[in-house]
Amino acid sequence: MTRRRALVWLAAAVAVSAALYLAIRQTRDLTDFEVYRTAGARVLEATPLYRPEDGHFVFKYLPAFAYAMVPFAIVGPEVARAAWFALSVACLVFFVAGSMRALPDRRRAMTPVLAWTIVVMARCDIRELSLGQTNALLGALLVAALLAVTRGSGRSAGALVGLATFVKPYTVLLAPWLAATVGLAALVASGLVVLFGLALPAASYGWVGNLDLLGAWFRTVTETTAPNLMLPENISFLSAWAKWIGPGPVATAAAAATTVGALAVVGMALLRRGPVRHPAYAEFALVLLLIPVLTPQGWDYMLLLATPAVICLVDRWGALPASWKVATTAALAAVALPMREIFGLAVTREVMGTGVLTLAALVLVAGLMRLRLHGAA
């Protein structure tokens, strides 16, 4: 019976994924994935990866990531899109399932926790898949690192975080967590993977060419930050302050102060881990939740990285006082609400321009810290 039920769920998942893929091909059509595929093709020819003429679709990842995209550049575009979508769905399923599996000391049954998590994260997950983005892959690598931590395999965890750095560099924020949880050996393993990845393009471009690539990557990332700050979909601290008080030095200073405060919260969570029997999960969830608001180009769909935080909050719901439940419910609703489909594009842009999702992320951070300070996570 159990095996039959699993097959039914698998068949349903495949059917839903296929329908979603067909719908996506009629709308967003995995537009961001084409950027990665183009980078893979350029690696094959050892030509420059970062080109201003690419405009909004300029490649912004570290050079080593382009090597991972080479298989998708070799096959035809239709096969490549279908394969990337299937890989993204698999990564997303693994991310959610791994986050559920790693959760320690469960307070509630798995089914309602999973159901509420899917409801809250569906909007971000679908947008991620429709754009062909890389956050599902990032989540899969990082939750694999978390599972390695639970097994006591520090070097594996460090290597996986190192690999994740080439998907999104700001995963370096997990370095203090690695050190506190599994020791310095994990940091060494992570550092070795990063060094290897940084040196890898020299095989095609030479040492000087590789240095030129790294310089071009840095210039691309920094020069494209300012033009994207006022976009409604940007939920970073820097973008939120620019929207609230206008872009400029004051907004930058306010964002820097907020960033320091957020990092101090992570430090506090690490310092207050003593009374908690299994502290690693909530700390991991906290860092992933902060990533979209700490990076200057943090987009709304990146909140899918909040999945472990949502799982933790839903599971520990009974440990939150009534007032905290109200605030947390409002924040979860803001993340979940498909505003564009309900209110239309104009209203959505107006609401998103208020920085509501940045505030929602901060409320969820506060909820996690409330659980930590009271020994519940």
What does this structure look like?
The chain has helices at about 1-25, 30-45, 65-70, 70-75, 75-100, 110-130, 135-150, 155-165, 175-180, 185-200, 200-225, 225-230, 235-245, 250-270, 280-295, 305-315, 320-335, 340-345, 345-350, 355-375. With about 375 residues, the chain is mainly alpha-helical. Helix 8 packs parallel to helix 10 (about 185-200) and helix 17 (about 320-335) runs antiparallel to helix 20 (about 355-375). The longest helix is centred in the N-terminal third of the chain and has 26 residues, at about 75-100. The radius of gyration is 20 Å and the shape is globular.
Can you summarize this structure?
The chain has helices at residues 2-25, 31-45, 63-68, 70-74, 77-102, 110-131, 135-150, 154-164, 175-182, 184-199, 202-223, 225-228, 237-245, 249-271, 280-294, 307-315, 322-336, 339-343, 345-352, 356-373. The chain is mainly α and 377 residues long.
